[in-house]
Amino acid sequence: MTARTRRPPTGAAVLQPQITTAITEAVLDELAKRGYGRLAMEAVARRAGVGKSALYRRWPGKQDMVLAVLSEMSVPLAEFPDTGSLRGDLIGGLHAIRDWLTHPRFVLILPDLTAEAARNPDLAEAIQNAIGTPRRLLGAAGLRRAVDRGELPADLDLELALDLIAAPIHWRLNVRQAPVEPGYLEALADHIMRALGATER
After folding, report:
1. Full set of structural domains in the chain with CATH
2. Is the pTM value of this prediction over 0.70?
3. 3-class SS at 133?
4. Residue 28 and residue 24: Cα distance in Å, rounded?
């Protein structure tokens, strides 16, 4: 048997996409139902209809599994659309943040995970590395496009600007428990532009 026709050894991990999808759905369901602290690999496997070995072939443990699943869903939602204008990009980004924070599963998962991270510094750092930093990098890329177009000042404080974009929606939804009414995100985009010293083009 040549190297080209050699079969994988018995027991070799072959990651089937449909099984990964079933596990991903099970992780999200278990997180929403039980929270991070009470989530068990056994329960995820049972809900997904697979053996625990299917989980461990993909991730070394619970934390890696949870963060991989949440990152895959959360990070792409932070990308600002390239509409050709800062206002258009901001409105698109604000809608994405709103959709993330009001997702039927994430509305249950995120508060629990935030509370868990406050008690667990290692988990907090892992969340920042897997989700927080990649999301902010995508947002920063959108703001840099506006700088390049001349819509924002060259000395823009990116970190402060990113906080200013996300914080009002988080405050309104999670702290005030108020709805995001029609027109709110567009008005918020206009306020953010003024705060950032934007120039209309």
Report:
1. 17-61 (1.10.10.60), 75-195 (1.10.357.10)
2. yes
3. helix
4. 6
